[in-house]
Write a structure and sequence with these properties.
The chain is mainly alpha-helical. It contains 14 helices and five strands. The structure holds tryptophan (TRP) and iron/sulfur cluster.
Length: about 325
């Protein structure tokens, strides 16, 4: 008997370079999940455009760059379907229909929406489209009838709304078309940015996956450490130091010794950072090499995305047919 694998859908917005925070948290989890699940990984360019519509110049380059990072980190197109949201137009069809049955209240109350409206200064997000961000996300997920959606905690309200939309649709049209997807919570990323805040493009405190060795060294030297440690002879408190988390993730076998040496003031921060920089240079080296190898034949990358588009379209068009039949919409 063939066991059908459960389906996963997840996505990232192509708004800039992927960094260590994306890798340790989301991407390395995706790489593992593709062994067990039928995975669809989507580059959410429509979602990016919802906030970047005034400035789309980098969208295409960012889209290819994300695909490149995914492949370099071990997303395997033989196992998973990698595609670009805007290339599968069924997303917009389902989004349009879902917008008819989604009440305004939950969209207006959505924490991500309220936060962005409040925090984002340099773009006008008080648009009709941006309010519908989670509705498009629900369409992304339900179009593929994904049962599982790996996401970070901030996305849970979007998942809840997706479930509500699925339930309402099924109820209105007496169908069982859409499963209610479960979130697979990505562990809180343990890696903070260089300045100790969440690693993020907007804080410019990240180490990107394609960083060259010199930049990695410079960035690691700029990292915040234990603020109480001013002189080399001051004993340090590794648990208060950001470097400590980096050792936990990238050199767990070295962490104990570093901890002890730091507490006893046997190692200075400059030296400790130097060692971590070399660990990261070594860690990111193969990813960089793989990126370069893929870039040598860009047509292969385009080929992977068009193959992904085909597979995504197959699944998506099937769902849209079923939706249209239930809604008495003609083809
Ligand atoms: N909103 C998600 C984010 O910002 C990206 C995304 C778009 C997504 N569509 C999705 C994630 C569907 C999971 C499933 O991270
Ligand atoms: Fe942090 Fe290392 Fe300095 Fe200790 S020695 S405070 S762990 S950078």
């Amino acid at each position: 008997m063939i066991m059908l694998k459960k389906r996963i859908l997840s996505g990232m917005r192509p708004t800039g370079k992927l960094h260590l925070g994306h890798l340790v948290g989301a991407l390395d989890n995706w790489v593992k999940l593709q062994e067990e699940y039928d995975c669809f990984f989507m580059i959410a360019d429509w979602h990016a455009l919802m906030s970047e519509y005034e400035n789309p110049a980098d969208l295409k380059a960012n889209t290819l760059d994300i695909a490149l990072d995914w492949l370099a980190c071990g997303i395997d197109p033989k196992k998973s379907t990698i595609f670009v949201q805007s290339q599968v137009r069924e997303h917009l069809e389902l989004y349009m229909f879902f917008s008819l049955i989604t009440p305004l209240g939950p969209l207006e109350r959505c924490p991500t929406y309220k936060e962005q409206l409040r925090e984002v200064r340099n773009r006008d997000l008080s648009t009709y489209g941006f309010l519908g961000y989670p509705v498009l996300q629900a369409a992304d997920i339900l179009l593929y009838k994904a049962g599982v959606v790996p996401v970070g905690e901030d996305q849970l309200p979007h998942l809840e709304l997706t479930r509500q939309i699925a339930r309402k649709f099924n109820h209105l049209y007496k169908s069982t078309l859409f499963p209610e997807p479960q979130a697979l919570l990505t562990k809180e990323a343990r890696l903070l940015g260089l300045d100790g805040r969440k690693m993020s493009k907007s804080y410019n405190n990240y180490i990107s996956l394609s960083e060259d060795a010199e930049t990695i060294r410079k960035k690691v030297q700029s990292m915040f450490t234990d603020p109480a440690r001013v002189r080399l002879s001051d004993p340090g408190h590794p648990e208060k130091c950001n470097l400590h988390n980096y050792y936990a993730v990238f050199a767990p076998q070295r962490k104990k010794e570093i901890d002890a040496a730091c507490r006893a003031a046997r190692i200075g921060c400059t030296e400790c950072k130097k060692e971590m920089a070399e660990i990261l240079v070594k860690f990111l080296g193969p990813i960089r090499k793989k990126r370069e190898a893929i870039l040598e034949d860009k047509s292969a990358l385009i080929g992977i995305l068009s193959e992904g588009k085909k597979k995504a379209e197959e699944a998506a068009s099937r769902t849209i047919k079923e939706v249209k039949a239930l809604l008495r919409l003609g083809d």
